[in-house]
Design brief:
Two copies of one chain form a homodimer. The first copy, chain A, is an alpha/beta fold. In chain A, strand 3 and strand 4 form a beta hairpin. In chain A, helix 1 packs across helix 13. The structure holds adenosine-5'-triphosphate (2 copies) and magnesium ion (2 copies).
Chain lengths: 256, 256
C-alpha cells in the first residue's frame, strides 16, 4: 500500500527541498522503494540529485501535466538503489495559467499518479513556496502533508494559514489527507529563538511534531552543490543521521 | 525624483523581507522619506514592522488593487519618522486569478503609484518568492531591482532565470527598469560555501554586486518577533550596521 507524502510550506527557504531529497534518500537506504517528485519550477530537487538539464528537458512533470504523458515516461533512476525521481524545470512556471479554465484542474496530478502502476512504497513530492496550483495538486494527490518549519519567527507566522488550507483541501477535494507531522528544521541549540520556537510549536501541536529534529548543519547545504543527497555526501554528518532518524520515525510511528 | 525599488527573488528565504524592512528603515534614518510596500500575501513585512492585524484588514494592498482605492488610504505611519508602510495580508493570495482576464493587469500597481502624489524619496516593494502576478506588477512599477542572494548553492541556481525575467519585463513592459544590484545575504565568513558563492558572484557580476555584505546575524532574525526593524531593536548589531551601510551605498553610489 503506497504512501504519498507532500513536503509543503508557503514560507520560503524552510528546508522543503532539503527534506524531500534527504527523506527520500533515507527511505531508499532503508530499502523502501521510493519516488521523489519535483513539483517546483526552481527544479532544486532535480539539480540537488544531480539530474542533468538536457535529460530534464526531454521529460519532466510539466510535459506529463500538459500533454497527459504517463508519469513512467519521465521517471529516471538515481545513484541510490530503490530511489527514482520525476524531475522538473522552469517550464513549470507557466502551468497555472494554462489550466485556469479546466474543470478538475486540481486533480491533474492525482489522475496521473493513479495511472502509475509501479510498486513504490513511498512517493515524496517537493512543493514550491506558495499555495498555488502545483501545491494544491500535490495535496489533492497525497495521503500525508509533512511541514518543514524553520525555527524562526516568520516561519511560525504562516503555519496557521497552511494548516487551514490543508483542512479546506481535505474537506473539499481529498478526505483522506492527514497531517503527517511538523518537522523542526535548521535547529540551533545555541540560539534562544530556535529554542523558543521549538518549545512553542511542541507545546501547541504536541505529538503532531516529529520527535526527530533537523539541526542546522553546513554539510546539508553543501551536498546539493555536488548533486548528492547527504547519505552519499557525508553519511557521518549530523544532517545525514537526523534524516535517517526521520525516515525510521515515519516508517515506524504508526501515524503515517 | 522618487526612486522605486523592488526586492525580488523567486528563491525562498533569501532575505527579501529582512532587506525590505531594514533597508527602508535605514533610508528613513538617513532622513529620506520612504514608503515600504508589502506585496507578499505572507504579510511578513507588515508584521515585522508591528502593524496590527485589525488595522491591515481595513486597508491593504489587496483592497487597493481590487477596488481601485487610492494607495494613500491604505498607507500608515510607523514608529520611525520618514517611514510609512502600505501593508498586506492573506487576502492577496487570490489576486492573481481575479485579474487573469484583465488587459494591462501587469500595470495595475504602476497606475496606482502614479496616482500617489506624496513626496517620497524612495519606495521599497517586498515581493513574494515567485515570479507571478505580484512580482511582475512590482517590477513593471519599479526603477530598480535589488536581488538578495543567500550565499548558498540553491540560491545561485535561480539567479540566471530571475535576471532573464527582468530583461523580458524591461523589453516588453518597463524600459526604465535597471538592476540596482545583487546583495549578498546571510554571509558567514567561517563557512567555505559562503566564501565560494561570494567569490563566484563577484567574479561573475563585478560592480553589479553591492560592496555591502549582509552577515548572518541572529539579531536580524530576532527583531521581527518584536515588531521592530533592526535599527530600533539593536542599533549596535552587525545586522543594523550592515543595512545602514547599504542605505548609504544606495544613496551615494550614483548607479541608483
Ligand atoms: N538543516 C539545515 N542546515 C543547514 N542548511 C540547510 C538546512 N536545511 C536546508 N538548508 C539550506 O538552506 C537553504 C534553504 O533550504 P531549501 O532550499 O531546502 O528550502 P526550501 O523550503 O525548499 O526553499 P524554497 O522555498 O525556495 O523552495 C538551502 O540553501 C539549503 O541548502
Ligand atoms: N542576515 C541574516 N542573518 C540571520 N538571519 C536572517 C538574515 N536575513 C534573514 N534572516 C532570517 O532568515 C529567514 C528568511 O529571511 P526572510 O524571511 O527575510 O527571507 P524572504 O526571502 O523574505 O523569504 P520568503 O521567500 O518566504 O519571502 C527569516 O527567518 C529571517 O529572520
Ligand atoms: Mg525548495
Ligand atoms: Mg519574504
Amino acid at each position: 500500500m503506497r504512501k504519498i507524502i507532500s513536503i509543503a510550506n508557503q514560507k520560503g527557504g524552510v528546508g522543503k527541498t532539503t527534506t524531500a531529497i534527504n527523506l527520500s534518500a533515507s527511505l531508499a537506504v532503508a530499502e523502501k522503494k521510493t519516488l521523489l517528485i519535483d513539483a517546483d519550477a526552481q527544479g532544486n530537487a532535480s539539480s540537488g540529485m544531480g539530474i542533468n538539464h538536457e535529460q530534464i528537458k526531454k521529460n519532466n512533470l510539466y510535459l506529463c501535466l500538459i500533454e497527459n504523458r504517463p508519469l513512467s515516461e519521465a521517471i529516471v533512476n538515481t545513484q541510490i538503489p530503490h530511489l527514482d525521481i520525476l524531475p522538473a524545470n522552469q517550464d513549470l512556471v507557466g502551468v497555472e495559467l494554462e489550466f485556469v479554465t479546466l474543470k478538475d484542474r486540481e486533480k491533474r496530478l492525482k489522475t496521473l499518479l493513479r495511472g502509475l502502476d509501479s510498486d513504490y512504497d513511498y512517493i515524496v513530492i517537493d512543493c514550491p513556496p506558495s499555495l498555488g496550483f502545483l501545491t494544491v495538486n500535490a495535496l489533492v494527490a497525497s495521503d500525508y502533508l509533512v511541514v518543514p518549519l524553520q525555527c524562526e519567527y516568520f516561519a511560525m507566522e504562516g503555519l496557521g494559514h497552511l494548516l487551514n488550507t490543508m483542512e479546506l483541501i481535505k474537506r473539499q477535494l481529498n478526505p483522506t489527507l492527514y497531517l503527517g507531522g511538523i518537522l523542526l528544521t535548521m535547529y540551533d541549540s545555541r540560539n534562544l529563538l530556535s529554542r523558543r520556537v521549538s518549545d512553542d510549536v511542541r507545546g501547541h501541536f504536541g505529538k503532531l511534531v516529529f520527535k526527530t529534529l533537523i539541526p542546522r548543519n553546513v554539510r546539508l547545504s553543501e551536498s546539493p552543490s555536488h548533486g548528492l543527497p547527504i547519505v552519499l555526501y557525508d553519511i557521518k554528518s549530523r544532517g545525514a543521521i537526523s534524516y535517517m532518524e526521520l525516515a525510521e520515525e515515519i516508517i515506524n510511528n504508526g501515524r503515517m
